[in-house]
């Protein structure tokens, strides 16, 4: 079994509140939501973070943004934030590429 938490969620070995899944990616609700709507979208194949994206992996990243646009439309979210933390200083705690999608409340800028 892979020891990466999000690989295990993608494979269905660890349960998560999945709202979407296809052959390339899956979306599931964050276990510790920071907004009324807070879900994560991840590639099924392991990529460490945005810093590991290259020409071979860029298609899945584009696909993930298509999925984000579709899911937020279906959820009726007109305004939302997409965030990906890269590295320890930025607050990345799970070393598998993921995009946070947060919405449903007023947000401030710059982020903390
Ligand atoms: P990061 O801190 O790496 O940017 O984001 C990781 C996110 O994964 C956090 O928001 C955290 O709450 C979420 N998370 C960590 N473990 C689990 C889990 O087992 N299930 C779900 N659904 N989310 C998790
Ligand atoms: Zn992984």
What is shown here, in short?
The chain is an alpha+beta fold. It is built from two helices and five strands. The protein has helices at residues 5-10, 58-75, and strands at 18-21, 25-29, 37-43, 80-83, 99-103.
Task: Explain the overall architecture.
The chain has 112 residues and is α+β, with helices and mostly antiparallel strands. 21% of the residues lie in helices and 22% in strands. It has helices spanning 5-10, 58-75, and strands spanning 18-21, 25-29, 37-43, 80-83, 99-103. A 5-stranded antiparallel β-sheet has the order 1-2-3-5-4, covered by helices on one side. Strand 2 (25-29) and strand 3 form a beta hairpin. The radius of gyration is 14 Å and the shape is globular. 20% of the residues are buried. The model has no long low-confidence stretch (mean pLDDT 97). The site of guanosine-5'-monophosphate (5GP) has 12 residues, from strand 2.
User: What is the CA–CA distance across the termini?
Assistant: 36 Å
Low-confidence stretches: none
State the shape. globular
Average of the residue pLDDT scores: 97
| Quaternary structure | single chain
Ligands = guanosine-5'-monophosphate, zinc ion
Class computed from helices, strands and strand pairing: alpha+beta
Number of helices: 2
Query: In this structure, how is the largest beta sheet organized?
Result: 5 strands, antiparallel
Radius of gyration of CA atoms, rounded to a whole number:
14 Å
* Strand coverage percent: 15-25%
Q: In which range does the helix fraction lie?
A: 10-25%
What pattern of helices and strands is seen along the backbone? HEEEHEE
What is the number of beta strands?
5
